[in-house]
Amino acid sequence: MAMSRATSLLTKNSIFHLQQQMGMPFSSFPFSTTCSSRSTDKVSFSNIDDALAFFNDMLIKNPRPSTYDFNQLLSAVMRMKKHGTVVSLSEEMELRGVKHNVFTLIILINCFCHLNRVDFGFSVWGKILKRGFEPDVVTSTTLVNGLCIQGKMGEAVKLVDDMVARGHRPGAYTYSVVINGLCKVGKADVAVGYLEEMEKLGCVLDTVAYNSVIEGYCLQGKVDGAREIFDVMVSKGSTHDVCNYNTLLNGYCKMERVDEAMQVFDEMLREGLVPTVVTYNTLIKGLCLVGRPWAAHQLFGNISTCGLTPTIITYSTLIDGFCEQGNL
């Protein structure tokens, strides 16, 4: 079933591939790192074995399918998160005389970054430039994200600056990636500067970007800074979500400022947001941390009332809290 579906899609997309060879510039191609076409259909397989079998069939097919068709298969395997397999298949393609095109290279950049081999990703990036093509914002952001994952924030920031210098305008996602990376290496103050830059450029400041900074300040023990960003969100027209509240609550509890955490919890309820089991686990842990297991137990009783199910973390935290106080 998967084989016939893939075959029909490859045939249909090959027609579109011919249209693409009529001189359209790279920037106008509707592709990103997933190599999708104007059609919403994508090649898909139920498992990796089906994909590999189909790949082998493509290699012996006469006439052989186009590079575009092979890219569709590579993209499908990439969506299965089999990034190492994609690299191996791309090598086999070249050995069998199937030349890589720029979209193959974009797929490889994505895979190398997921494999934590950003250095290989940049090597492929160089091949794209040598062919006279200009990588788009999506491809550049993939490399930025890879650098951020490795904690190489100086290189990540430089790449974003290079994007701007080449005439590309980074979008909200690119900036969110940089903001998240900066916060993870203890540079929340610098990340705030990028929030301001996003606002100047007219980018939508979503809750994800704000939450990265809130979490960044909390990781540094600067919960007051986190609270300030939390409040700024509303003044900028954004709306708090449960994740924002959970992050701030965790920051207060880790600093043993549990009374303030409970006040934030009350704010959350007044906003009409429904707490999750993570919310309760965070507060229970905070109360136990400051030697108030009975208050934690009282809060524990609210979990079932809210239709939630306590987790093993809930029980173990509460038990540890009572044991610490000698209440066995």
UniProtKB/TrEMBL annotation:
Which Gene3D superfamilies is this protein grouped with? Answer: Tetratricopeptide repeat domain
Q: Where are the PPR repeats?
A: 101-135, 136-170, 171-205, 206-240, 241-275, 276-310
- What are the record keywords, sorted? Repeat
Q: What family does the Swiss-Prot or TrEMBL record give for this protein?
A: Belongs to the PPR family. P subfamily.
Q: Which NCBIfam families match?
A: PPR
Q: What is the protein name given in its UniProt record?
A: Pentacotripeptide-repeat region of PRORP domain-containing protein
**What organism is listed for this UniProt entry?**
Salix viminalis (Common osier)
